[in-house]
Structures are given as C-alpha cells and as structure tokens.
Design brief:
By secondary structure, the chain is mainly alpha-helical. The protein has one domain (3-38). It has 2 helices and no strands. InterPro entries: SgrT (IPR031767).
Length: 50
C-alpha cells in the first residue's frame, strides 16, 4: 500500500468511526485481551465486621 493510500485509509476509517466509542474501534480479539488483563481472577476473602 502506498503511503498516500494508507493515509487515506486511516483518514476515512477514523472519519467513519469518529462518533463510535474508542472500544468499538478495537477488534474482538483486542477487546477480549483487554478484558483478560483487567479482570482479577483471584478470589479474595471478604472482610466482615462481626
């Protein structure tokens, strides 16, 4: 892809998605990876005051 056509692609892409949330711009794989990194899978014991 030539530099000018690559630039045009990104300009068109961001113009088309400018009203979408930033998360909508990510692929499903990227969203799942982000979710995996954010989630804490370790179960912690809740602190209770008795």
């Amino acid at each position: 892809m030539q530099r000018s056509s690559l630039r045009r692609f990104y300009l068109d892409y961001f113009r088309a998605t400018q009203d979408a949330g930033w998360l909508a711009r990510l692929s499903a794989r990227q969203r799942l990876k982000m979710l995996e990194e954010l989630m804490q899978w370790e179960v912690t014991t809740p602190v209770s005051k008795d």
